[in-house]
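help with this.
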Amino acid sequence: MSQPTLSNRVSTLKPSITVALNNRAKAMKASGIDVLSFAAGEPDFDTPQPIKDAAIKAIQDGQTKYMPTLGDMPTRECIAEKLTKENNIQGLTGEHIAIGVGGKHVLYSSIQCLFDPPAVGEDPWEMLLPTPAWVSYRPVCELSGGVVKEIVAGPESDFCITPKQLQDAITPRSRLLILNSPSNPCGTMYSEQQIRDLAKVIHEAVDIAPNLVVLTDEIYEKIVYGEHHHFSIGSIPEIAERVITLNGMSKAYAMTGWRIGYAAMPGEFGKSLIKGIGKLQGQMTTNITSFNYPAIREALTNESVAGTVEEMRLAFASRARLIQSRLAEIPGITCPTPTGAFYVFPEVSCLFGKTTPKGMKITDCASLSEAMLDEAHIAFVPGNDFGGCGPNHVRISFACSDEQINEGMDRFKKFVESLN
């Protein structure tokens, strides 16, 4: 008897390599192996107490029932006010805000609202993706029926694309440009002037690509420590109504497990997009956990929480300097200076072709990561699935203590020195 089969879109879907590496490292650690994991994109700090207290009070007050699909209006308005005051994105009301189950969910819903599979004889819609890029952008686009057109940047430009590269990539089938600054996996970011220069290209391309929209993923906006401040492309009036701003509570507020993300887009099309997200969520998850809404408002308005967020930012800045200095001690390993988020993305291709003490041949960054996990008990994420020049790199998260960074870099250095 024949067996049922899965759909092609699921059968061909690649699992997240970051989740897989982190899960394997956790399993090894649970079995008693002293594994140091640098794989997770998760702050090691606890959620600030006032945020937790707000959720606990909401539970005690009975806020445990269904809520409006996109979130209650006081919380949506609070997010709109935050984006207006902090990010200078004008024209936002609560009607322009969608709250979903984490940034990944909101990203998925936004892209589903923008893409259709191509009709017979028609070219597919394109998503312009500066790479290296977070691993989920590509599969989410492809699940929607779109195709990805990479715009490759390298370490010589701190992984930032140029206006000319963007201009050359735009076609009449360009539907979406993804921007992610500060960047996962690169740990670098665009300056305000670089963003303004890209915005000018987008504005001037309206006649060529009238359906082009920008989705700017700003989940790491508060974790910056280089010479540049965070700047939202949605604050530029000429293209503001073509920009979806995606953000959430996970990274800045150490709330990864709370699963709270949001999207914002001004203008009439923005309202239509948000309504579309609402229709999708209505068939998927409905609202996020009901007692999280007061916690969101507390996080965005409480001054003591802002102080704690700043303390976390300073800690990440110190760790960035530490891991950069430790990587510089390892012969052949090069890495741009981290300026945002909590990652470094060093080039490791100098190690390809070498052999480990246990006889494993290092052929690429994936085999390198496997060997380091098995033999040195350190978990780095191979750069293959980040696209662009990623296959020559590994991603190292420094969302961990100074002690773990030092011990991990000691193991990395010893491992590199042991290769033949």
